[in-house]
Each structure stands twice: as structure tokens, then as C-alpha cells.
């Protein structure tokens, strides 16, 4: 399978990616725990059916030391006992923030309050921004049908 567009050789795409990556660096350098960041990116990618990002973030998380068990259970985190309460709150916010069109009111007050119990203001800003960024990446990759499976950890620096 080939992508419809090559985002890696087009100057406009490269410029766009640099700007999105700059925003991503702000999030990755924040106090939001790195483990939580990877779980959020993986869960949103699963929901959006983004094979490329699911491949990337599964491999990046494993490379950073995340267990196979936890990675395998992200898709069913509600029934899994291997996630902390804070991780569960982040995953719940990720689901509602990713599925905005499915919920008439967007993110519920209960989900927001639960996340706010576990994360301070800076972490909440980072979490909301991360959810928005990974959804943007997912949509770009799904639209162009970016193939999955060949990603290597650290591939993009």
C-alpha cells in the first residue's frame, strides 16, 4: 500500500510538520508524565483507525520501557487493572475529546472534573493540547492512507 501523498518529500508538508512538531515538543517537555502521553497518543490513534500512529506510538512506548501487557490493554483500559487512576482519567478524556461528534455535549463535566483531580493546570493544558495534536496527526495520516508497520523508534528524531 502506498500513501496518496508523500508528506516526507513535499516542502509544504515538511513546513507544516515542523510547526506541528514544535507544538508537540512543548507538550512533551511539559510536566505531563511521558507514560501518560504515550498512552493518550496510542488510544486516540486506535479510536481514529490510524495504523501509522498506532504503529509509531506502540513502538515508541515499548522502546521507552512500557510493558507489552499495558500496551495490549490500552484498547480495553476500562476493564484493565494495570492503569493508574490518573492514566484512566487521561484515557477517558482522550476518548471523549477524540469522539466529540459522538457526544452531543462534547466532553462531559464529569470527565473533565475527574481529569482535574489528577492533573494540575499545566498538565491539563498539555493533555488537551496533546489530544488535539494527535487527532490532527491521525486525520492527516488516515486521509492520505499512510501505511503502517515500518516505523522505527526515534525515526523522526
From TrEMBL:
Protein name in UniProt: Carboxymuconolactone decarboxylase family protein
Residue span(s) of domain Carboxymuconolactone decarboxylase-like: 23-96
One Pfam match: CMD
GO molecular function (one): peroxiredoxin activity
Lineage top rank: taxon: Bacteria
Organism: Streptomyces fagopyri
UniProt xrefs under InterPro entries: AhpD-like (IPR029032), AhpD_core (IPR004675), CMD-like (IPR003779)
Amino acid at each position: 500500500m502506498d500513501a496518496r501523498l508523500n508528506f516526507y518529500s513535499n516542502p509544504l508538508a515538511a513546513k507544516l510538520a515542523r510547526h506541528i512538531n514544535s507544538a508537540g515538543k512543548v507538550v512533551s517537555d511539559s510536566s505531563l508524565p511521558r507514560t501518560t502521553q504515550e498512552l493518550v497518543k496510542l488510544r486516540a490513534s486506535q479510536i481514529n483507525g490510524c495504523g501509522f500512529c498506532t504503529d509509531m506510538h506502540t513502538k515508541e512506548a515499548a522502546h521507552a520501557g512500557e510493558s507489552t501487557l499495558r500496551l495490549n490493554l490500552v484498547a480495553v483500559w476500562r476493564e484493565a487493572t494495570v492503569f493508574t487512576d490518573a492514566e484512566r482519567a487521561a484515557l477517558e478524556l482522550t476518548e471523549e475529546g477524540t469522539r466529540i461528534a459522538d457526544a452531543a455535549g462534547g466532553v462531559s463535566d464529569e470527565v473533565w472534573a475527574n481529569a482535574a483531580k489528577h492533573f494540575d493546570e499545566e498538565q491539563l493544558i498539555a493533555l488537551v493540547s496533546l489530544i488535539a495534536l494527535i487527532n490532527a496527526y491521525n486525520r492527516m495520516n488516515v486521509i492520505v492512507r499512510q501505511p503502517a508497520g515500518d516505523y522505527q523508534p526515534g525515526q523522526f528524531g
